[in-house]
Design a protein that fits this description.
Number of domains: 4
Structural class: mainly alpha
Helix content: 55-70%
Oligomer: single chain
Distance between the termini: 77 Å
Number of strands: 0
Length: 513
């Protein structure tokens, strides 16, 4: 909230009451003003309007107006010039006050009409104070280098000092009409005041700049996709920013401030901007469902810090909702139908489980998994078809590994993996793969290398099938002609190298020689 309405309290109350039907908050309003912020910005006296929490709240509800003037909420609150512009902007301020009053009344369990009357009374008093001061005690002209000296000479209570310091800071910024120029002077002042009490005024306004999309465009560079902007903001928040040519040089300074902990409000603003970007309706990376599903999971991993998610529960909900646009009954059905081979459908389904974000999306996929794996003709359906046996066996082995590593309940994992093992055993039997290798020709070394190559490519499920492979390999390895066949004319270092490679490869599948 901020004292900016240029009319009498009675007139303001009447106008607000007449338009109260327009004050019903939307879902976006509720998301933009969480309870903690509404509570922290609950104004009961004139001084409250000038607090950081109040400025933050009004900034969220007057974003379009402040962006149009290229100003921060602090500049709006402490400038009579900007407040005059707001007063001339029709219902802009009144609509914001209506919504805030309704939300705060709901939070407190009180009357929205009474809260609106109280706010307008306070607004009138706050406006009068600022305009009286503008007339009788205009802020002095202070250069950026002189801000600390000015603050050092301030007298009065902490509230009075804050009021005076922010008026002067607003006056310093008045001549800067481009976001990057405004950020530049603020960063300069931040360094000049670092370690001093007045640094907090600078950092607060810098944090407000980082909530502006146009400011971020100028500082980070225009982004081709929302994913790029999200990644940049996540890197800034985590202290992992790496400067690039398309970003303004000042971003390095901002990143360092956030990383060393000297700009906590800036870090909070980066988080806020990341959440707002996630709320955008545009695709993160692509309109193609498969690409977008993976992009959302990639961002989830980017935002994961090891023990928490940037943005907490709100970020998780946003990511889950975005994925749910594609991971729903119709979307998943369409994606599966694109796979003509049944084994490929199982493989894709398990692939989706590895990138699903949130319990809701996992529950959706679980219904499909249960449906597909409950097929009583599972094995014959999976092994049928004219496709070559080796690629299909590799697909089954991949599904088996995906099931084993998945979030599925242990009982389901065991049952589903057993079905994959049975399907591969049947496919191995139908294709007579081992017999084909044995009859293929060549010596025992060629047969060993063929089996090792198939194993390396993940063809066999680790279980009964892999045990059969090991047994067959040991048979060929014990052949008296194996070493001669394998080493050929190799000697010295070449012989040692070939033996070391063989030993290492065999050890990787559990065979010791």
């Amino acid at each position: 909230m901020t004292p900016t309405i240029m009319m009498s309290g009675a007139r303001a109350r009447k106008r607000a009451a007449d338009n109260h039907s327009m004050a019903i908050p939307t879902k976006d309003d509720l998301e933009a003003a969480p309870e903690a912020l509404l509570e922290g910005a609950y104004c009961t006296k004139v001084e409250d309007f000038f607090s950081p929490g109040s400025r933050d709240l009004i900034g969220r509800f007057l974003t379009n107006f402040t962006e149009s003037l290229i100003i921060t909420p602090t500049e709006l609150v402490f400038s009579a010039k900007y407040q005059k512009r707001l007063n001339d902007a029709g219902r802009t301020m009144m609509n914001a006050v209506d919504k805030i009053a309704t939300l705060q009344a709901k939070l407190k369990g009180g009357s929205a009409a009474q809260r609106l009357r109280d706010l307008n009374t306070l607004i009138s008093a706050g406006m009068k104070k600022l305009w009286d001061d503008e007339k009788d005690k205009p802020p002095p002209a202070v250069p950026p280098e002189g801000f600390s000296a000015y603050c050092a000479g301030l007298k009065g209570s902490p509230t009075e000092k804050d009021y005076a310091a922010n008026r002067v800071l607003t006056e310093i910024l008045f001549s800067h009409k481009v976001w990057k120029d405004k950020v530049a002077v603020l960063v300069k002042m931040f360094h000049l005041t670092k370690g001093k009490d007045e640094n907090r005024y600078i950092e607060q306004v810098l944090s407000e700049c980082l909530k502006s999309d146009p400011a971020l465009d100028q500082m980070l560079g225009l982004c081709e996709t929302l994913e790029e902007r999200c990644n940049d903001l996540a890197d800034l928040w985590k202290g992992e920013w790496k400067q690039r040519d398309t970003a303004h040089a000042l971003v390095e300074d901002l990143a360092a401030m956030i990383a060393d902990g000297s700009a906590p409000n800036c870090k909070a603003s980066v988080e806020y901007s990341l959440l707002r970007t996630l709320a955008n309706k545009m695709p993160l990376r692509s309109a193609e469902p498969e690409i977008e599903i993976s992009a959302l999971f990639d961002l989830f991993r980017r935002m994961w810090t090891g023990n928490t998610l940037i943005g907490g529960g709100k970020a998780l909900i946003s990511l889950e909702r975005r994925q749910a646009r594609h991971l729903n009954k119709e979307g998943v059905t369409d994606l599966l139908r694109e796979r003509k081979v049944l084994a490929d459908r199982y493989a894709f389904l398990m692939q989706l489980t590895t990138v699903a974000v949130g319990q809701g999306n996992r529950a959706t996929l679980k219904t499909f998994i249960d449906h597909y794996f409950s097929d009583k003709d599972f094995v014959p359906r999976v092994v049928s078809g004219q496709e070559p046996p080796v690629p299909k066996m590799q697909t089954l082995a991949g599904i088996h590994r995906a099931i084993k590593a998945s979030w599925l309940p242990d009982a389901d994992k065991a049952a589903f993996m057993a079905q994959m093992e049975a399907a591969q055993a049947q496919l191995l039997k139908n294709s007579r793969l081992f017999e084909q290798i044995d009859k293929k020709g060549g010596g025992p070394a060629q047969k060993v290398l063929t089996l090792l190559d198939l194993s390396r490519k993940g063809t066999f499920i680790d279980g009964a099938t892999m045990d059969a492979v090991r047994q067959l390999l040991n048979t060929y390895l014990r052949d008296p002609g194996f070493l001669t066949d394998y080493l050929g004319t190799a000697s010295g270092e070449e012989k040692e190298r070939k033996m070391m490679l063989l030993t290492k490869t065999l050890a990787s599948i559990g065979i010791t020689v």
